[in-house]
Amino acid sequence: MDILLQNLQPLFLALLLIVPLLFLLGFVFRFRRRLPYPPGPKGLPIVGNMLMMDQLTHRGLAKLAKEYGGLLHLKMGNLHMMAVSSPEIARQVLQVQDNIFSNRPATIAISYLTYDRADMAFAHYGPFWRQMRKLCVMKLFSRKRAESWESVRDEVDCMVKTVAANIGKPVNVGELIFTLTMNITYRAAFGSTNQGQAEFIRILQEFSKLFGAFNIADFIPWLSWIDPQGLNTRLAEARKALDKFIDLIIDEHMQKRADNNVPDEANTDMVDDLLAFYSDEAKVNESDDLQNSIRLTRDNIKAIIMDVMFGGTETVASAIEWALTELIKSPEDMKRVQQELADVVGLERRVEEGDFEKLTFLKCTLKETLRLHPPIPLLLHETAEDAEVAGYYIPKKSRVMINAWAIGRDRNSWEEPETFRPARFLKESMPDFKGSNFEFIPFGSGRRSCPGMQLGLYALDLAVAHLLHCFTWELPDGMKPSELDMNDVFGLTAPRATRLVAIPTKRVVCQL
C-alpha cells in the first residue's frame, strides 16, 4: 500500500500543478475574449447561419442591419462573417484599422482560378500586393497609357454608329453597353477586339458562375468530399480553358519581343506592359524603382488580366445602364441633363473631353447613379488579426462585407435615400466618392480601393454623355417610365434584372 501511494504521489503533484494552470489558462482565454461578438441572428450547431445563405446579398444584409445594427455577425460553418452597413463602422474598418482589414477573402474557387492569389485583387496585403498596385496605377491604368484611353473613345464611336443605324427601332441598350465595355477592356488587354473574343467571353461567364457558386467546403472544410455540382471538375476545366487561351496570346507577344517588333510605349497593350516585368520566378522588394522591384511569372500575368477583365467589364456596363434607366424613369432630370448638353456643347457637334468640366448636372447624375447602384455592392475584406470594432470582437480571418449599397441609402446620411435626385449633389459640401467620405464609397476606400477608378469613370462619362447628347430615348410599346423594372440581380455586380430596351431618335444635327 505504501509503495502504491509512493508511486501515485508524482501524479497527485502533477494534478495539483496542472488543474490550477488549466483554470488560469481558461481565465486568460475568457479575459482575452471578454468582448462579445457583434449582434446577429442565432445559428444552429455546426452549420451556424448557413440556412440564411440566400440572404447574403446587398439587399438581404441591409434588411438584417435594420434589425441588428450597422455591424452584425453571422457564423457560416467554421467561418465568422461580419456585415458593415453604416458609414461610422465603415470608417473604423477602412480607415482607422485599415492595416488589419486590408486582406481579401478568397473561396476555394477564387484561389484556384487566380492561381493561388497570384493576382492583385485577391493577394494578401504585403510587399507583393503593394508593388502590384503600384504597377497597375503607374502602368496599366495610367493616363499616360494612351491605348487604354483611346480604346474608350474608339469603342464609344462604334456604339454611337450602331445606335444611329437603328434609329426608330427598339435597341437592347443593356447588350449594347456590355459589348462596349467588353470591347474596351479586351482591346486594352490584348490589343484587338476580334481575335477569339467570343471564346473569351464564354470563359469569363464560366468563371463568373464558379466565383459565385456555393461550395460547402468553403464553410465546413471536412465536408470537402461532398461535391454535388461537380465544382472540382468545372474548376479544372475552366482554368485549363483560360490557360490555353491566354498562353497563346502571351506566346505571340513574347515572339514579337524576341523579333524586336514591340510597339512604342504609347501603343502597347496590357500584355506588353506586363511582359516587361516577366520572369520564370516571382520577385518583389520595396524599392521605389518599379522596374527592378518586381518580377511577374506567367501565372501572375494571367491572373492580373482576369482582374482587369472582371473589374472593367461588368462594373462599368452596369453603371452606364443604370444611369440611362434612372434618367428614362425620371423625365425631368433627363430633360435637364440634355438641356445642359445642348447649352454647353450645342447640337452641331459631338461631346468632347474638354466639355466634361462644364457639364455639372451630368456629373451630379452620375454621382447619384453610383450612390444608388455602386458598381460592386459588397466590398469584401478579411481580418489579418483579432480586432475590436465598436466594442465588439472580430476574430482573425473573419470575412467582412462592407455593404456599399446599404451605406449609399443610409437614412442618417441622405435625405430621401431611396429617391433618384441628382440635384442633391449641387449643394456644397456634399460627399464625394474619392474614398474619404464613408457615406459614399462606390469604389471602396483605403488600401484596397479600386485602382482602375479613373479609367472606369472616363468610360462612364464618355458613354453616357454621347448616348444622351446624340439621341433621345423612348420606351417601346407605349410603356410608361413609371413601369420600368428597377430590380437588380446580385452577383459580383448588381445589374438590372432585365436588360434596358429603348427606342432612339437622333437629336444632334451633326453627322454620326
Short structural description:
By secondary structure, the chain is of the alpha+beta class. It has 16 helices and 11 strands.
Can you describe this structure?
- There is one protein chain.
- By secondary structure, the chain is an alpha+beta fold.
- Helix content is 48%, strand content 9%.
- The protein has 16 helices and 11 strands.
- It has helices at residues 2-32, 58-68, 87-96, 108-113, 127-140, 146-164, 173-190, 197-212, 231-258, 270-275, 290-293, 298-329, 331-344, 360-372, 404-407, 453-470; strands at 71-76, 79-84, 171-172, 283-284, 294-295, 378-382, 387-389, 392-394, 399-403, 471-474, 501-506.
- It has a 4-stranded mixed sheet with strand order 1-2-9-6. It has a 3-stranded antiparallel sheet with strand order 3-11-10.
- A hairpin with a 2-residue loop joins strand 1 (71-76) and strand 2.
- Helix 12 (298-329) packs across helix 14 and helix 13 (331-344) packs antiparallel against helix 14.
- The chain starts with a helix and ends in a 6-residue tail after the last strand.
- The model is unreliable at 11-15 (pLDDT under 50).
Uncertain residue segments: 11-15
Distance between the termini: 108 Å
Strands, count: 11
Determine the mean pLDDT.
Answer: 89
- Individual helix count: 16
Helix content: 40-55%
From N to C, what is the helix and strand string?
Answer: HHEEHHHHEHHHHEHEHHHEEEEHHEE
Look at the helices and sheets and give the structural class.
alpha+beta
Sequence of strands across the biggest β-sheet: 1-2-9-6
Biggest sheet, in brief? 4 strands, mixed
Shape: globular
Percent range for β-strand residues: 5-15%
Kindly provide the radius of gyration, computed on alpha-carbon positions and rounded to a whole number of angstroms: 26 Å
